[in-house]
Amino acid sequence: MTIQTAARRPPQDAPPPATEPLKFHTPRKAKAAIDPEKQPVTDLARPKPALGKLGAMVHLMSREQGAALHELCDATGWQAHSVRGALAGSLKRQRGYVIASEKTEGVRRYRIAAHAEEASA
After folding, report:
1. CB-side neighbour CA atoms (13 Å) of 40
2. What is each CA distance from 56 to 20, 49, 51, 74, in whole angstroms?
3. For 35-57, how does the pLDDT look when each residue is reduced to its tens digit (9 = 90+)?
4. Which of 9, 97, 98, 107 is the most buried (most CB within 10 A)?
5. Domain-located, residue 92
6. What is the pLDDT of residues 6-34, one digit of tens each?
7. Cα dihedral angle (61, 46, 93, 107), rounded to 10 degrees?
8. Angle made by CA atoms 101, 104, 108, in degrees to the nearest 5
9. What's the CA gap between 59 and 56, in Å, rounded?
10. Domain presence at residue 105
11. Pick from 121, 85, 119, 118: nearest CA to 110
12. Share of the chain above pLDDT 70, in %
């Protein structure tokens, strides 16, 4: 048993579809690249202050002995792969921290060596 349905047609008195051209949104970054006078001024020499869970990670890794992975997991409540992702993405790439990693006595410890601008100077 098959059920056939008629194709839905617009009512006879419906207005024709609009013929306006499609408008595309230009992102702010693209607009800034087009007009250099409107580019935002950013201070890349100082890292953004890390707040919340990232701030706790920065605090632990700023110590002389650094922080072990399990300490960072306990401080944030995240799983190990999430902590490693935050180290590589949020802290290293986005905020510019130089993160040193050492393995002593079978335990890997992470610490903040410097900020990228300080290390290159």
Report:
1. 7
2. 52, 11, 7, 10
3. 555 555 555 555 556 678 999 99
4. 97
5. yes
6. 666 666 776 666 666 666 666 665 555 55
7. -10
8. 45
9. 5
10. yes
11. 85
12. 54
Determine the pLDDT at residue 116: 53
CB-CB contact of 71 with 107 (8 Å): no
**H, E, C per residue of 64-107:** CCCEEHHHHHHHHCCCHHHHHHHHHHHHHHHCCEEEEEEEECCE
The whole-model pTM stands at 0.55
Q: Which domain holds residue 99?
A: 64-120
Q: What is the mean pLDDT of residues 53-76?
A: 93
Asked if the structure places residue 48 within a domain, the reply is: no
| C-alpha–C-alpha distance, residues 119 and 121, integer Å | 6
Strands 107-115, 67-68: parallel, antiparallel or unpaired by DSSP? antiparallel
